[in-house]
Amino acid sequence: MKIRVLWVGKSRDPWIKDAVDEYAGRIRRYAPLELIDIRDEKGAAAEEMRRRECERLEKQIPPGATLILLDERGELLDSPGLSALVGKQRDSGVADVVFAIGGAYGFSEEFRRRGRLLALSKMTFTHQMVRVFLLEQIYRAFTILNGEPYHH
Questions:
Q1: Total structural domains within the chain
Q2: Is residue 82 part of a domain?
Q3: Long-range contacts for 9-12 (Cβ within 8 Å, ≥24 apart)?
Q4: What is the pLDDT of residue 12?
Q5: What percent of the chain is modeled with pLDDT above 70?
Q6: 150 lies in some domain
């Protein structure tokens, strides 16, 4: 199973890039991982920006992939719950699991209907921080699946 993480915009802060690189390296011990920056839209109305960004995201989703959208209105899972979700995908033979983080205005309603909505918290975080939190949780999910002591 390959993990693909799509996000709108580039990681700008060096400390975010360092954390992304750290957790990406950890995840790659368990599964192939691809991180893809999607160009963000500028200078349009919010709905138009969402539509254009989601069109770009759509082009990066392989046929048959499981799509999980990070959305503040999504389902809240604890770490063992995310681990179970990842494990179920792995064990059912899914070739690609795609996690997507939208731009400043989120996803279009049409795109939101394409995937499973998952919230990291009821709190609001910057899109930059969400990248790190998501990667850490994916890494944690694999350590739980492998019975390793990282999650205790």
A1: 1
A2: yes
A3: 9/37, 9/38, 9/39, 9/40, 9/103, 9/104, 9/127, 10/37, 11/37, 11/128, 11/131, 12/128
A4: 83
A5: 100
A6: no
Q: What distance in Å separates the CA atoms of residue 47 and residue 71, rounded to the nearest whole number?
A: 16
pLDDT (0 to 100) of residue 115 = 95
pTM comes to: 0.95
Residue 9 φ then ψ, to 5°:
95, 170
Indicate whether 151 belongs to any domain: no
Query: The domain containing residue 88 runs over which residues?
Result: 2-145
Tell me if 31 sits within 8 A of 139, measured CB to CB.
Answer: no
pLDDT in tens, 55-76: 999 999 999 999 999 999 999 9
Residue 6 belongs to domain with CATH number: 3.40.1280.10
Check residue 141 and give its pLDDT.
98
